[in-house]
Amino acid sequence: MLNLIKPERLRPGDKIAAVSLSWGGAGDPDLIWRYQLGKERLKTEFGLEVVEMENTLKGSGFLYEHPEKRAADLMEAFRDPSIKGIFSCIGGEDSIRMLPYIDFETIRGNPKIFLGYSDSTVTHFMCMKGRLSSFYGPSILAEFAENNGIFEYTANWIRRMLFDASPAGSADPAEYWTGERLEWTADNRHIDKKMERNGGYEFLQGRGKIRGRLTGGCMEVMEMIKCTELWPDIELFNDAILFLETSEDMPEPAYIGRWLRNYGVQGILGRLSALVWGKPYQGKYYEEYKEMILKVVVHEMGLYDLPIVYNMSFGHNEPMMCLPYGRMAEADCDRQTFAILESGVV
């Protein structure tokens, strides 16, 4: 795993860029209120000044037709010295079409925080290719514009990872979680989502303490990255902790098996220190995914000693932690704990 560059931490008063790198819904007339709510929350909760790039709010139709404009916004956000961080408005399924327009030297030469999840997995792999450590975590339209406020678990992780240059430490699971999907309408904005008690992490196998550098993302999106210049050399998976999760598409367990089987025959799984898995969206296929992971990783690939941690609090359910790419983490299989041993920022 590459020793990725740590970006500089955020401070209250810093300027961050909001970018629409995939779906452009932040600028659609029926959703711009949601974007403005997330923007205001970032100001009141964290003291950040949120600015839009030239094309951020041009709407889903325009941005679908112009991946080069999305990429231009990202490159300009990296180049602008007044911008200290870049936050994704939302995911989608179209970030991959930015690839021909990305200058990796611009990323490498202007290291700063990039935050997002889901389809932002593409941009995280762009950052890795530019040797930059980025952060798998909340988006503006979803978590920062959450009904009745940001979940405190999520907010605490943002403070720990983006504002604090000390080691993050223990990564405890969220006590409660929700996968409820409420339509993004102004009428719904004060409705609380239904929360359920979280069962905590499940250590499916493994012994002792295992350390490795974090990499991974949304599994469906990683399928879009395979065989492109973004897909890492096999050596980058050596002793890594691979974190994986699935989206609101809720792929059937058979797909999980096929994708994992591909990782196995590539030789990726055999190189890992550990495999960690986010709770499936809405808890669907919870047991089926677990069975499929064990079927492929253990019974087919024979990786009887690879630590596997399941039901972690990152990805498409809420609240969520914030995972720093390339930073050292530790799974203690005996104590059944997980920790991030480094800071994400300087």
Which structural traits does this protein have?
346 residues; alpha/beta; Rossmann fold; Glucose Oxidase, domain 1; six-stranded mixed sheet; 20% strand
Short description:
29% of the residues lie in helices and 20% in strands. The chain is an alpha/beta fold and 346 residues long.
* Residue-averaged pLDDT: 97
Helix content: 25-40%
Determine the strand fraction and express it as a percent band: 15-25%
Largest beta-sheet details: 8 strands, mixed
Uncertain spans, ≥5 residues at pLDDT below 50?
Answer: none
CATH C-level class of the largest domain: Alpha Beta
Per DSSP, the total helix count is 10
Tally of domains:
2
Instruction: Tell me the overall shape.
Output: globular
Q: SS-based structural class?
A: alpha/beta
Radius of gyration: 19 Å
Q: Would you give the CATH topology of the largest domain?
A: Glucose Oxidase, domain 1
Query: What is the correct CATH architecture of the largest domain?
Result: 3-Layer(bba) Sandwich
Tell how many strands the DSSP assignment holds: 16
Strand order of the largest sheet: 6-16-15-10-11-12-13-9
Distance between the termini: 20 Å
CATH superfamily of the largest domain: LD-carboxypeptidase A C-terminal domain-like
